[in-house]
Amino acid sequence: MSGGKRLKQVGLQRFRITVEFDGSAFSGWQSQQNAPSVQQALEQALAPLHNEPIRVHGSGRTDAGVHATGQVAHFDAPAHRDAATYLRILNVRTPHSIAVLACQPVAESFHARYDAYYRQYLYRINTRKIPPALERSRVWHYPYLLDAERLAEASALLLGTHDFSSFRAAGCQSKSPVKFMRLIQWQQRGDEWQVSIGANAFLQHMVRNLVGTLVLVGKGDWPVARVAELLAARDRVQAGPTAPAWGLYLTHICYPGDQGEPCPPITPKI
Fold first, then answer.
1. How far apart are CA 131 and CA 121, in angstroms?
2. Is 144 annotated as a binding residue?
3. Residue 35 per-residue DSSP state
4. Which of 72, 106, 140 is the last residue of a domain?
5. Full residue range of the structural domain in which residue 15 is found
6. What is the DSSP letter of 100?
7. What is the mean pLDDT of the chain?
8. Does the pLDDT at position 9 exceed 80?
9. How much is the pLDDT for 4?
10. Annotated active-site residue in 22, 63, 76, 115
11. What's the CATH code of the domain at 57?
């Protein structure tokens, strides 16, 4: 069956949600047997509403300690409750470190993971000499001067379609290391550097490995040309260290039909 007929026959409706969370207390997005996760918290909040478990499907995994302001997920739940009711239930029954920002009914064919065509992250770096007290679990404290021109030049080498094997975790399960990098944009705000990174998809630890490499260029330890050499090498050992998880935020996921920033035009699948 198609077009929502299967879900309607069993009295269910598919809902799309946008989730914000502080990842400090979680083992990541994906449910794990012996550690708290964001997915598990959402599913536990929905569990009393149906006579069987309600599975929440996210746009992708985030590592332990990583935050989100725009994670997207979907679930199938009893259709006699509207989206506003589910929005209220999820925000009442989840920990304060999770906020469900939006909930809307969608077609049965919608899938939070497989339909996403663009993902964007933000990474925050604090460069002051004294470590931050209030945001210790929300920024990477890296007390060194960074050069804006070197950061921009190195980042430009990463734009477009490349094999990102040099920035891929050893345990990554992605079928292909080839991704289309659309955006790497740096901004300095006082002692803090912020970099927005957007692509059609990411490898495991790819954003954190890119940041760990780019700061070495921005600091002056490595030449700008090293970035092109790393792409050609396809060897994780030669690239920079993995930046800490707590400076990373998943900010945007885009789907066909979404309007406005930052969703770019759909590019051919890699």
1. 23
2. no
3. B
4. 106
5. 5-106
6. E
7. 94
8. no
9. 53
10. 63
11. 3.30.70.580
Contact 155, 175 (CB under 8 A): no
Q: Where residue 1 falls among pLDDT bands split at 50, 70, 90?
A: very low
Q: What is the pLDDT of residue 57?
A: 98
pLDDT category of residue 265 using cuts at 50, 70 and 90: confident
The answer on pLDDT for 132 being more than 90 is: yes
- Are 185 and 60 found together in one domain? no
Least-confidence region, from 42-46, 168-172, 226-230: 168-172
| CA proximity to 248, closest of 221, 210, 200, 191 | 210
Q: Indicate if 12 and 72 belong to the same structural domain.
A: yes
From 70, 85, 106, give the residue that closes a domain. 106
148: enclosing H helix or E strand:
helix 148-156
Question: Are 14 and 81 in contact, with CB atoms under 8 Å apart?
Answer: no
Q: Does some domain include residue 268?
A: no
User: Which pLDDT tens digit goes with each residue over 195-252?
Assistant: 999 999 999 999 999 999 999 999 999 999 999 999 999 999 999 999 999 999 999 9
What kind and span of H or E run contains 88? helix 83-93
Both tokens of residue 233? 């090498």
Q: At what angle do helices 226-233 and 206-219 cross, to 10 degrees?
A: 150
Is 124 a domain residue? yes
Q: Is 82 a catalytic residue?
A: no
> Total structural domains in the chain?
2
12, 101: one domain: yes
Cis peptide before 262 (omega within 30 of 0): yes
What are 172's two structure tokens?
A: 């990554």
